[in-house]
Prior knowledge:
The chain is α/β, with parallel strands linked by helices. The chain has helices at residues 5-16, 31-44, 75-90, 98-104, 108-112, 115-127, 132-145, 161-172, 185-189, 192-196, 231-239, 255-262, 295-299, 310-313, and strands at residues 58-61, 176-184, 203-206, 210-213, 216-219, 246-249, 269-274, 306-309.
Amino acid sequence: MRPVFPIIATCLLLATSPVVADPLPSWAATETKARIIDFVESVTDPASPDYVTPADRIAVFDNDGTLWAEKPFYFQAFYALDRVRERAAADPSILTSDVLKAAAAGDIEGVASGGLEGLLEVIAVSHAGLSVEEFQDDVNAWLAEARHPSTDKRFEEMIYQPMLELLSFLRDEGFETWIVSGGGVQFIRAFADEAYNIPPQQVMGSAGPMEYVDGKVMKLPGIDFVDDKEGKPVGIASRIGKRPILAAGNSDGDFAMLEYTTNGDGPRLGLLVHHTDAEREFAYDREGHIGVLVRGLDEGPERGWLIVDMKADWEQIWP
């Protein structure tokens, strides 16, 4: 008769051994997922030659098209269009450009044709005249009611579940996660903590002038800083003061951020979300006004950047 003690001991060992949970359950079991996990494990294992101290584990993420959807137009633009229409109804004299006239008419293509500069003009007009707190309260009230024109989801429901998991995984492994977006900084700060568990002090974005008046910080018309393209590394160097070791984006507007991140010494990871799933989300890359991805597709692989194929690499899109 075989002794039972080794069998019992083995059963006890299996019962008490910790089960390692999948940190990225919404990601398909592809090379993409394996590379992300391997990178994180290598920089957080003290025995690894690629070990990075927690103080230097900085990860930066674009927002539009990377953490939540951006089609058919940036979500902040929908908010701005609503507010420009309201303001123009009360004071038509604010419509001083073709882009603003298009915004008041709800002409998304007309606004998009003005590029980021035109969008920022619309944002400047629609957002000015409120204190920072009043503006963020208004943003959250709008988010609670507004619906996406094609999915009928609330905009906050169109956050990418796989990216939420990646953010959580990184923080669990001692990373500090930042948003570095071309969108308005105060707009994103209104919801980033609740949506992504990223506090407002770790959000960078395009910013307009402000002034202090009678106990309030008021938003003024205009743009002081555009946090897009080459502006992203400048903002990172100014605000964070360290070169990140991981950067995630989805368009050529993020190219400079990924280049800056991966040009540093030691282990680095650049990641681009490629929108390939027209059935569950949207499919786009080289053409259009929003989220254009050309240089990233052409040069990213040879630079060692990870191109995330949304259709193949994500088993789930929305939370």
